[in-house]
Design a protein that fits this description.
By secondary structure, this protein is of the alpha/beta class. The chain has 15 helices and 9 strands. The strands form 2 sheets. A 6-stranded parallel beta sheet has the order 1-9-6-4-2-3, sandwiched between helices. It has a 3-stranded mixed beta sheet with strand order 5-8-7.
Length: 385
């Protein structure tokens, strides 16, 4: 544990069923009278975005829409959203949807005030000024983007996902309404829920843990593991949906401060190259990476088994750590998440380039509990072909 610790998070959280109806109050607090809503076509088709627009307009807020966000958004999409914001003259930004929509909203808010291209923002602390007022509304319990200072965008030229890290990427307010996650398909519930659980597990096993991140990660692991099967099986269960959204938020707070580790580093190249959805990519890589990482901190991996409620009495620390990994494998199977890269067209000949991509994600590998070599990366990918 470090002697000096710093903890940051989103300054205002509004949570609970029906919270969406308070959105105009939050905009008024920010002193804005016009907004750009950023989302994706799929969410627009559900009617949730129309409902949001109606609430805004009834509250006297001038409302404009950018609904072209796609999964694993290319960085060029941020430029298109910025052009829409400037044409509308919007004073604030609302991001609603999954992690991709929230990330585009975050980066557009700072592009509007910093006057530098998005490509100059990739890296850590390269944004100089706060962005426009920003409200984020997650509709999946997965990325935790509403409480992180991180944006991930795809660079299809380099076949990589790249990160922007800055405290100016925290929103002014995060609004978490579990009613917006009712009706989320089981497949999406599983993938996004596993993503949230992986955030918590990686934050707990990161080399960069803090006392605060440990508290948050531990609670997130317990909440998500205890509710994800119910949310997957019964999507109308508002208690499970509420708990998943809260767990995802806590996991986001944890990894925003402790960092994620090699699971995400492995997910980025396969997501960028083969367009494997982020939660699925993480889930495929979870067990082999944890199996590799386990000896780097047996005590923490063993503790996770207890958080899962698995009996470990009489087991050695190593055996208890293995119980945690086996429980995650079982959970992935229960949720019917794909477990092999071959299902997405990945072949053995692709492994060297993918492994080389992993080694470039130094920001995350620095957090990993075990040092990773190129040969290790290749072996881990081959384990899930």
């Amino acid at each position: 544990m470090k002697q000096r610790e710093i903890f940051t998070t989103t300054p205002r959280l509004v949570m609970g069923p029906g919270s969406l109806t308070t959105i105009t109050d939050e905009i008024a607090r920010l002193g804005a009278s016009s907004v750009l809503v950023i989302t994706d076509p799929g969410l627009k088709a559900t009617g949730i975005v129309t409902r949001l627009e109606d609430i805004l307009r009834q509250g006297g807020i001038a409302t404009n829409l950018f609904d072209q966000v796609e999964a694993d958004p290319p960085f060029e999409l941020a430029d298109a959203a910025l052009a829409r914001l400037r044409a509308a003259g919007a004073q604030a930004v609302i991001g609603i949807g999954g992690g991709s929509s929230l990330d585009i909203a975050k980066v557009v808010s700072v592009m509007a005030t910093n006057e530098i291209p998005v490509t100059n923002m990739f890296g850590i602390d390269l944004i100089q000024k706060p962005g426009l007022p920003l409200i984020l509304i997650p509709t999946t319990a997965g990325t935790g983007s509403e409480v992180t200072p991180i944006v991930i965008l795809s660079d299809h030229h380099e076949k990589l996902k790249k990160g922007i890290v800055s405290p100016y990427l925290y929103p002014s307010c995060a609004l978490l309404d579990p009613e917006l996650t009712i009706g989320l398909p089981p497949k999406v519930t599983a993938a996004t829920g596993m993503d949230a659980l992986i955030h918590a597990v990686e934050a707990y096993t990161s080399r960069n843990v803090t006392a605060m991140s440990d508290i948050l990660a531990t609670e997130a692991i317990r909440i998500i593991y205890g509710n994800i099967r119910t949310a997957f099986s019964d999507g109308e269960n508002i208690t499970a949906r509420s708990n998943m959204l809260r767990g995802s938020m806590l996991a986001g707070m944890a990894f925003a401060n402790a960092g994620v580790t090699a699971v995400h580093a492995f997910a980025y190249p396969i997501g960028a190259e083969f367009h494997i959805p982020h939660g699925i990519a993480n889930t495929i890589m979870l067990v082999p990476v944890m199996q590799f990482n386990m000896i780097g901190n047996l005590e923490r991996f063993a503790a996770i088994a207890g958080m899962f409620g698995r009996p470990t009495a009489g087991l050695s620390t190593r055996q208890a750590a293995q119980v945690a990994i086996d429980a995650l494998s079982e959970l992935s199977d229960d949720l019917r998440v794909p477990r092999h890269l071959g299902e997405f067209g990945v072949k053995d000949k692709d492994v060297p380039e993918l492994a080389a991509g992993v080694m470039k994600v130094t920001r995350l590998l620095a957090n990993n509990p075990r040092k990773l070599q190129l040969a290790d990366a290749e072996a881990i990918y081959r384990a899930v072909l």
